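Q: Is it fine to ask for two folds in a single conversation?
A: Yes, each is treated on its own. Send the first.
Q: Here.
A: Result:
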Amino acid sequence: GVVCATDVQFKGRGRSKNVWESPPGCLMFSFTSQMNDARKLPLMQYVVCLAMTEAIKDLCCAKGLPELDVRIKWPNDLYLKGLKVGGILCTSSYEPKVYNICTGKYVPNGADTNTGRSFIIKTWIPLPFSGIGLNVDNEKPTTCLNAALQELKANSPRLKREDILASFFNKFEVLFDIFSNQGFQALEEQYYNSWLHSGQRVVVQDAHEGQSVNSVVTIKGLTPSGYLYAVGEDGKSYELHPDGNSFDFFTGLVRRKIDA
C-alpha cells in the first residue's frame, strides 16, 4: 500500500461531508490496502481503530511511559479520559486487477476450452482507503496524548508522531493479516477490551402508529455486518443503526429485530 502523512490539514474529509482542519501537532496520515472479500469492508475501520489503540499501548510500554487508556467509541473515534483525541475514516473504491489464468483439467470461468490457450481476464477488487487523525500535542480544545502523559507523570518524555506512526503499522500489519485470513471474529475479544460500550444502555427510537417511541436496550457487541448488537428489555436481540442525521452516532439510534 501507499502511505501519505502531513503536518497540517485544511480540507480533511469527515462524516456527512464535514470538513476538518488540523493544525500542527496532530498525526495525520492516509494509506491504502487491498482486500479480496468485499463483505469484510465494513469491519475494516474496526481493525484500524484497534491497531491504533494497541500501537499507543505498545509504544508507551516500550518507552517506559505510563499507559494511556485510549478507547474506541463506535464506530470510528478514539477517546481518552472521555474526550475525543482521534478519528478514523475508511472508504473504498474498486480497481481492476489482472490475473493470468492457466488452462488445464480444471478450467476456470473465461478459459478457452476449445483451443486450450491461456489468456487474461479482468476482475475488480475492493481498495480500502483509510485516513487517521490523532491529536498528539494540542491541549486545546479538549486534550491530547502528551498532555495526558504529563498529568500521569510530570516531566514525562513526550510521544513523537513518527514513533506512533511506526508503531501503528507494526501493529496493523499483524492485525490485518489475522483479519484477512481468519475474519474479524479472531479479533473480537481484543476489540471489545478496547472499546467503550460493553454493557452500555442506550436509548433507541421506534416508530409506533406514526409516533416516535424511545426504548432502552443494552449493547452486547457487534453483529457480523458491523452494526451494534443489543438486547432489549423484552429479551429480544436487535441490530442498532444510526439514523443518518445525528452528529453523534449514539443520538437517534434505530433498531432492527434480529430473527432467532
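Q: Second one now.
A: Result:
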Amino acid sequence: MNKLTTKLIIWHAGVAVLAWRMWLGGQSAKFDAVTGIDFKIPALGAFVLLIAVLVLGYVLFQQRRWSLTTAGIIGLIFLYVFGWNWLNFVAVGIFLIFNLWSANRVRREIIERKIMNIPDMFYHGLTSVVLGLFVMISFAAYQSPLLTQIEKAGALPGQTQTFFQQVADKFIGPRLDTQNAAERRYIVGQIASQAYQQVNQFLKPYFRFAPPILAFGLFLILSGLSFIFIWCGMLVGMILFWILKKTRVVRTEEKDVKAEVLVV
C-alpha cells in the first residue's frame, strides 16, 4: 500500500466519522417553536469540520471521482439515520451533484492558476458543499416529528403561546395601567392566549402545507447564513492545510507548465 492510498483511506475514514457524528446530532435539525431552529453545538462543530475536510481532500487529491465516494459515504449514513425512503434518496442525489460540482470547481481553480491560492480553492469548493448539505438538512427537517405534529394537530405547538406571552409582556406589559403584578400577568396571559387562538384560526386551512413550507423556509434561512459556515470552513481548512504542510504530509513544488497563446 503506497502513501497516496493510505492518505486516501485516512481521508475517507475522517469523512465517515464526521458525517456519522453530524447526522446523529443532526437529528436536531428541526424547528423549535420559540427560536425557530434548534441545533446542537457538537453537530454544528462536526458540520464545520466535515466541510473543511471534504474540500481539503479535493484540494489535495484533485480527482473528481473522490467526490462520488465521499458523497456515497455521507449519503449512506444519512439514509441509515433518517430512513431509506425515496425522499431521502432524492436528497442524497442532489448532494451528490453539489459535491461533484464542488470538486470540479476546486480542480478548475487549481488548473487555471500558476500560483496556488488555497483560500480561493476552499471558497469555491465550500460554497457548493455547504448548499448541498443544507438541502439534505432541509429534507431531514421536512420529516421532523414536530412538523408532522403541526400538520396533524392543525395548530401551532403550545410553546408558541409562551413566545406570544413573552412578546406581550415586553411590549404591552409596561403600558398597562396597573401596579398589581398578578393582575398584569393575567392580562398579558389573556392577550397571548387570544393572539395564539387567532393565529391558529387564520393558519388552520394551511397547516397541511406546514412541512414543505417550513422545510423550504429552513433552507432559505440556512442559505442566508451560508457565508458564516463558508468562512468558518475556510478558517478550519486553512489551519488543517497549514498543519499538514508543517508536518510535511504535503508540500508544494514549482514546475514548468505549457500555456496556450492566441496568435493572430
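Q: Anything structural to flag on that second result?
A: Two points. The mean pLDDT is 81. The two ends are 51 Å apart (CA to CA).
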